[in-house]
Amino acid sequence: MGYFRRNHLVPVPAVADLEALNALLLAGCRADEARILDGRREAVGVAMAAERDHLLRLAPEGFELAEVTFPLVDKQGCVTVKTNAYSVPAKPGTRVEARVYPLQVELWHGGRRMARHERCHGRRQQVLDLEHYLDVLGHKPGALAGSRPLEQCRQAGHWPASHDTLWERLRARHGKQDGTRAMVAVLLLGREFGAEPLRAAIATAVSLGACDVAAVRYLLGEAALHKAQPMPIDVGALARYDRPMPSVADYDTLLVSSPCAGRA
Description:
Elements: H1 2-8, H2 18-32, H3 44-52, E1 67-69, E2 78-81, E3 84-87, E4 97-100, E5 104-109, E6 112-118, E7 126-127, H4 134-139, H5 148-155, H6 161-174, H7 176-193, H8 195-207, H9 213-225
Parallel strand pairs: 3-7
Antiparallel strand pairs: 1-4, 2-3, 4-5, 5-6
Helix pairs in contact: 6-7, 6-8, 7-8, 7-9, 8-9
């Protein structure tokens, strides 16, 4: 490990993300396979290939790589994990399972994953998901505009300009309180249809001049309303049983008056 660190990690490499770092480490390992240790005749890669046949098989099941804790949900709907607070859609006082990975923090309860956040490596920070507070904001719509979850949603790029346009139209139509409550109802559609489809539906509704919750719901379910066109089937030998479509031309003779017509 000391050799690898000195030759591949000094100076500390600058990479864009974890995938780039893993690619850098893999390239270093491949390069070291050609190295010949002192007192040996074959390269490291050759010796490793010969050793592989004598190793035990991998375990049939992997092991959990996460650090697991069991924090309590506080009155703000958050749990504290490694000094940072993460939101979770659970009642205060609920004990949840927190699984800490290198890049994510997952919160579980009752065998179901309730939340997943990008891990924060700072200290005393709050990581909040706006979706976790929609039920509360539906009862207190006035708190949405200045809320920290909305601020973080904007900073993360998950609140495009079309959301503000729709929100403004709803407030102009229904008033400040009821319009914001309607906007919360629109956001709740993301639980049923997903975040990305909801953003696309809101953008489409805004472009069409709509300002109604039902319009956004219709756009989300529009694809299910279209039925696929049936494809023609080759009947093969059965084509010889085809018959021409019947004609009603002979019935027109009934409309022609006969010599006996009109006689009593």
